[in-house]
Amino acid sequence: MPKQPSYAHCARRVDRSFRSIGLAILMLALVIPSGAVGQEDQGFAPKAATKESEGSVTTTTELMALDQKNWQRPQSAFKWIAMARDIKMPWDTFGRQGWMTDDAYVEPVDPGASEFSPDTDIFYLVFAVSALDAPSQYRAAWFHMPDGQTPSTELTGTDALFMEMNEKAGYLEIYRPEDGWKKGKYLVKLYFESPGQDLYEPNVIGTMAFTITD
Q1: 31 and 68 housed in the same domain
Q2: Would the CA dihedral through 42, 48, 53, 54 be positive or negative?
Q3: Does the pLDDT at position 127 exceed 80?
Q4: What percent of the chain has pLDDT over 90?
Q5: Dihedrals φ, ψ of 42, to 5°?
Q6: Is residue 24 domain-shared with residue 122, that is, in the same domain?
Q7: In terms of domains, do 29 and 82 share one?
């Protein structure tokens, strides 16, 4: 006949069971808050990632800004580029019969200028480039920035210059819109593109800025 467990032995087993249940409840109580904290962390993670992403976009935009003061050096696809109030064509750019030579060039007048009065009709982006592999087009498109930082989605104006393979210099015209300049800051996007191509953001090779003063 099998031996029956004593009362004391049964009491110890019951006591151990209650201890196990109590320990399980305690562990469950500790796990639930930590899980809630984990859920909160997961909720904040996308916001932090978004901020980092926005920061990287801002950094990329800043990196595309060309140096308008120290302009006599290679930048982006240009050997040099300058914003100027006017242009002049030296005498040696013309041939004997008055035709432009193959290596014609222009010079900027008051290079590095970036502030213009509201009555300014036109100013220029003057540049030099290395020899091209194929006929190409350089374009400028400018946008008003009402808050001084964010460009409007509405295009203020654009100008394009088609260049043959043998041409190494040129200029783009920034002209006053028909309804006049809005005061404040403007962003200029510079594009290198195929002739006749529409504005396409991946073709942007640099940015510049100017201000219409009071």
Answers
A1: no
A2: positive
A3: yes
A4: 50
A5: -65, -35
A6: no
A7: no
Does residue 74 sit in the same domain as residue 33? no
* Total number of domains constituting the chain: 2
Query: Are 122 and 187 contacting, i.e. CB atoms less than 8 angstroms apart?
Result: no
Residues 6+ apart with CB under 8 A from 188: 125, 140, 141, 142, 174, 207, 208, 209, 210
CB 205 within 8 A of CB 191: yes
Q: What is the pTM of this model?
A: 0.68
Kindly state the tokens that stand for 92: 């040696």
Alpha carbon distance 213, 119 (integer Å): 10
Dihedral over alpha carbons 182, 187, 193, 197 (to 10 degrees): -40
b/e map of 74-102 (b: 16 or more CB within 10 Å)? ebebbebbbbbeeeeeeeeeeeeeeeeee
Domain interval for residue 6: 1-58
45 and 111 inside one domain: no
